[in-house]
Fold each of these.
Amino acid sequence: MALFGRKKRTVGLDVGSGLIKLVVVDHSTGEPELAKVAITPVLADAIVEGEVMDPGIVADAIRGLFATGGVKQKGVVTAVGGRDVIVKKIQMDRMKESDARDVIRWEAEQHVPFDMENVALDFQILDPDTEGLQMNVLLVAAKRELVENKLSLLTDAGLAAEIIDVDAFALHNAFEANYPDEISQMVGLLNIGHEVTNIGILEAGVPILTRDLAIGTRRFREDLQRERGLSAEDAEKLLQAPERSPALDPYVDSRGEEMAVGIERAAAFLQTASPSGPAMAKIYMSGGGSRIPGLGEVLADRLRIPVERANPIKNLKVRDGVFDTLAMDEVVPLLMLPIGLALRAA
Ligand SMILES: Nc1ncnc2c1ncn2[C@@H]1O[C@H](COP(=O)(O)OP(=O)(O)OP(=O)(O)O)[C@@H](O)[C@H]1O
Ligand SMILES: [Mg+2]
């Protein structure tokens, strides 16, 4: 299968509720190279909490993005995420992968609160080379409807899926490629988007827990509009300013507190599940919200661990000119997820 016709370029498509991000990574030389980045805003409320309310508008926006970006390749790697996707580390009787495939649906039933008739499942054995009666398995379950909706959105946009990934795995993928030395510790990945913040906790390079919080830059913006009487535009300016400001600080404090509580809960859940497990060493932020001035400091103070902005091109070759028409420093934090998608050689 892979002997010939291997795709040289992978197109990663991240359909966010605020921005649609398109990234092309060239895999032809063996060393992945970022070859293209294109971004377009989504009309307000066309996507709400990950659900596409107006597929026509979103498909048009995707089409336009491919046209302006000059990307002709139709096969893309994209992802699903949110409440209807569950990533969970489980234990089951040790067996061969092929046997596990036969029983995984039955195993999953005990761990997945969805109607099993309508669930797409995948799994990975985490400790295939160890002995013992039980094995650790990373289970992924997504409501089938979510996957089907994504596929039909792609069809509407004239595209086809090469891989439907999971948001958390794509983030993890980008992290692993750029921070290979950090992978031995327990780290938190925080992708703060327009509507949703994805929390991912990695242990020894494995995403052992994912959670979503319904907080994103939109909440911050609405706080400023409602309580400071700012226009959406002015509020957005404050959120994307290089420095903190007294007008913004109180909201960063209170929303940051909310996020910290969400992270603490996720970490506490892990601690209960395995009390002797390691503690989180560090948090890496990405997404548009990671640019909010002061947010990283608020989280670090509250959680008492270092919080740093993740750089998805730290270890990635970038072709000349990729960021020529973009403000590189502003855009790079938004690219963690789409780069993670495009790093997969399809
Ligand atoms: N350079 C920028 N251009 C436009 N928006 C930006 C920029 N930097 C930060 N933002 C803010 O970040 C938001 C988009 O962030 P991001 O792309 O991570 O979210 P998303 O993926 O669209 O949303 P979600 O994941 O919640 O569906 C915008 O809505 C805006 O508030
Ligand atoms: Mg996003």
Note: The radius of gyration is 20 Å.
Amino acid sequence: MTNLGKLIPDHLKKLDSYKPGKALRQAEWETGVRCIKLASNENPFGPSPLAIEAIRAATSESHFYPDNGVVELTARLAEIHELDPSQILVTAGGTTLLDIVARTLLGPGLNAVTSKLSFIVYPIVTQAAAAHLIEVPTLNDGYDLEGILRAIDGNTRVVYIANPNNPTGTVLDAQAIDRFLARLPAHVVTVLDEAYYDFASYFAAQRGREYSHSLDHVRAGRPVIVLRTFSKAHGLAGLRVGYGMGPAELMGYLARMKPAFMVSSLAETAALAALADEDHLQRAVENNAAGAELLTPAIAAMGVRVVPTWANFLFCHAGEDVAQLCQFLQEDGVIVRPMTGPWRAPDAFRVTIGTPEHNQHFLSALKRARARVLQPK
Ligand SMILES: Cc1ncc(COP(=O)(O)O)c(C=O)c1O
């Protein structure tokens, strides 16, 4: 018998697979109650009705392979972002883009740098590329850019910056990113991960701050890749579509590394329709800002430390008993994301901002769960 384990390279044996938020059906099956899912930062209003209509209309063409170059969506994105199509690569969600970047730029002996308490896909894709991930301690619950600059060495090829950061929801403003990029050595490519761009832009307008002008860096030809996704504000997480924007030469190399026919025709059609539905997007970002305003003080009033958010979720430091707390919340029909395991924040959970009804349900459930956790045993 072949020892299959022997065939697997050592760096892959240590690889941990991605652990997603608990699926709605699984939680309902476990608890026997109807649940709301506030665990994966999805759009609580679902996809745009225009996207649903476009998907319906396109299903009869499903026997054809999709357009490998995703030409129509790429052209539309180029128009919207004032870039050349050669500067854009559409992928099956932003996570796939991260994987392609790692496989293209990293390898044995090389490293990537990011922050502790950031997106759990960064360690996975880096390790899968046989490279090493350096994680710099956080500053005020977010990225410490000075620390990241100090951690970069001659073998660094990639810096991942989640902006806003997942899971803490903190942001780095446009000027901080400018200063950071100006000091980066030429052998490093920065991934500006703006998965929560629409929410952060809305907050920035409300709060009188400049969140991001990352595309100016792309237009200036700097070694940055800006990541965006249709999974969050556009409500298309289940269809898997996202994109990267960067220097044409680099994006050309990334394109060579992408799996063939990665973006389905339904995903492309839905994304094009979602781009045309500004009302749906506006509803999502407005509801999100109102939800953040309601939830942040209400959670804090229960003695839980909440980090002010720039995204569509809240990072909550509840205490040591967070696994138990999340279990009680689930029994009460609310799925949140414990920050245990790969997130390495065992005293915290993350909750996605929902519809007004979801948020009220969550607050009542949290109150009951806290009371149960704090009960003397
Ligand atoms: C920081 C960050 N980047 C990228 C993504 C990628 O999402 P997707 O693969 O659904 O586009 C996510 C999703 O949770 C995220 O939180």
Note: The chain has a mean pLDDT of 96.
